[in-house]
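Re: [help] complex structure
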Amino acid sequence: MKRIVVVGAGLAGLVTSTALAKDGFDVTCVAFGVGGLPLSPDVVESAPSSCAERSVVAGSELAHPYAAIGSDAIQTGLELLLELAGSDLLTGGPETSVMLPTALGGWRPACLYPPSMAAGASDGPAVIVGLRGLRDFYPGLIAGNWGGRAAMVDVAPRTGEATSSPLVFARFFDTDEGRRALVKALRPVVQNGETVGLPAVLGLDDVNAWRKIEDALGQPVFEIPMAPPSVPGWRLNNALVSAAQAAGVRFRRGVKAIGVQQADGRATGLVVASAGHPTTLPADAVVLASGGLKSGGIVMGDHQQFHEPVMGLPLANVPEAPFVADVFAPQPAYLVGVRVDEAMHPLDSDGNIVCSNVHAVGGLLGGSDRSRELTSGGIDVGSAVAAAEAIGGELA
Amino acid sequence: MSDHFPSATPTAQPSPSRHTAEPSPYRHAAEPSPYRHAARNEVESQHQARSCDCAQDDGGWTAQDGGSAFARARLDQCLKCTICEASCPVAAVTPLFPGPKFVGPQAERFRNGESVDHSIDYCSSCGTCTLVCPQGVKVAELNSQARAVMKADHMPLRDKLISQTTLMGQVMTPVAPIANAALAFQPVRVVVEKTVGIHRHAPMPRANSQTFEAWFRRHRRAYPVTRPKPVLFFHGCAGEYFEVATSKMSVQVLEYLGYEVIVPHHGCCGLAQQSNGLFREASAAVLKLCDQLRSAGEDLTIVSSSGSCTGMLKHEAHEIMGVDDDRLRDVAVRTRDIMEFLRDMHDAGELPLDFKAINMTVAYHAPCQLKSQGMGYPATDVLGLIPELKVVESGFACCGIAGTYGLKAEKYDIAQAVGHPLFEMVRATNPKLALCDTETCRWQISQSSGVPTRHPIAMVHRAYGL
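Output below.
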């Protein structure tokens, strides 16, 4: 059985690992900590139909990653993500585009999103309800910007603390007792015909807790994402990790990838810093899903020198001045990344393949300001599929 | 992880030709910045200066500097992302512990030799927070250090007693049946709870009439030596006095694989003292152990079936207590958990696969201190090679005991709540057997779930027909 090592357990790493394991490879997913999903609001924002043919981003010497990935891989990736997450956790599709409310009461486009957020896209009267003791959720702010009424209710998830973490609330709503308490508190403040917007803490392990609350209340309910910890992000993370494990992916957490062992121009293993001594994981192919500048997959040194820390991959779009003073303006640093071909092989500046069995996916790819463009989900799942298909072809 | 050890192979350093720009003059990302280096060197030289004055070889720990300056230097990497808060098994079940970020990177900013937050005593030191941190913040290490400082001038007698694991073994072994009967006798346990503070229902080890080393001296190997180099077996204090069967099976498997096994007389790694904040005593114990292990040969692989003691040697003594000593470094790089050792053999194509089938489904719980060593799940990898054996990994962070945490009267209920879903899962999977790599976790799971729990080497031993 051919062995693949994937570095990173965010969206790109988990989808790549699972796709390869389903194809019959022996996959080890190496991660320094938990991946980035628990920090995300759990929506894939951009419908590929609107951006598969994205042009070069201003200031980039590279084509947008979508050009190398291609719209077929993006579409396949989104469909795979829907399948892995399951219909209780994600809905929508490659051609869907709905607008959902944010924690500040703004609008956010969504292509794939949790069913628990779906009613946020509907028109009509709404009430945004906060939970006393839950920090960082302000119904007045949301209602003022987005619309509807604002209200607060008291639901103490456990005694002995003045404020509780969103996870404590979410675990409370996993229980019948917690859901009953919430519905009882909501009844007096919700008016007939109103849709009810609540902070996204409606159950952690029970992915249908929100439906049970909706059924008991008898009125449509939707979740609004909050600042981290993102409960919907944890739900998606847990579901994708379970799907990966079910497909046979082995996880090695708490280790940093510190090198790629090579012989005759090919990778033969990944070196990780495990406790006490470094370990080399034998590999027939290595996939770097280690993320971009915000995730440690690309590192900026004390003198603004950019560096890919696992194997020193060539980086494109390295700017003279990485950041501009206006924090709301596009930041050149975010375009830095790896140039790839259609098989997601990293390329040097002359377009030559760096190492024929090393692939780069996700946030590591240069030429995109992912957060600003809302293309991060499309790049992650699309490049995952493109790399998995290429490896399947190369190692078959 | 192992940032203070020489990192990896030459491939770890990017070759200059791979850079788009000129060859990078910058450090490897895993290295601390010069500023942190300076801070660490300063503390290290203080350590060295002090250790000259110390009669005891304990690394010169004092309550003022807590422990490893390296762990403290990681503090500013914290982004407040809350991944550790969400993953903490203790904060999930009690409001008494406000969470690892709160008492760790946040409170640490206010500490200057003084304790600012006493809720840190409710941290169990399971290390889940450090394991899940995407930024490399040593959250658990910071918390352990801060707790040691907090407890330094009023260490409870109970915590001094329960960390004397070797003494317990020495006292109990000669009178094993009586000691076991006394610890199973509830009126005795009630008195112990009222006077010392060890919960009446907390799991207790069972003493053996014969120590492992006594058995080893008399045993005769059944298989010829076929490997060029011997291995050194590190039994730990639990493996010497209480979990003697696990140590015996480990040696028998290693001998079956053709290794000559060497066991120098040795003592405790000091882990129980470390987790109770007795850093001075624990540092002395771990360095004494290093001397004992090194006496048997300085280039032999050290194999152990005490999964948490290997963690103490590999990284905890350095990263939590700041022990910075070439003897420890030498032992740390050579130490392997026994399942890790077998998995490495398999990866190298050297593990015989003449396993007999075991038709069984069994729950396996990877202990928190094993997970924090960054070696994945070697037990499930190896047991997966045994025909017809189905091993179900628990998926839970911690069983609750965390060394001695769950023994303490005021923390017993928390430890039980932490472990509750695991106990249910273990019972539902197989009511007759469960597997786990570390001693106190096995005692906790056995006692709380009612399911006898053994080291995974027992399955390898059985599948090889030993």
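The first strand of chain A starts at residue 3 and ends at 7.
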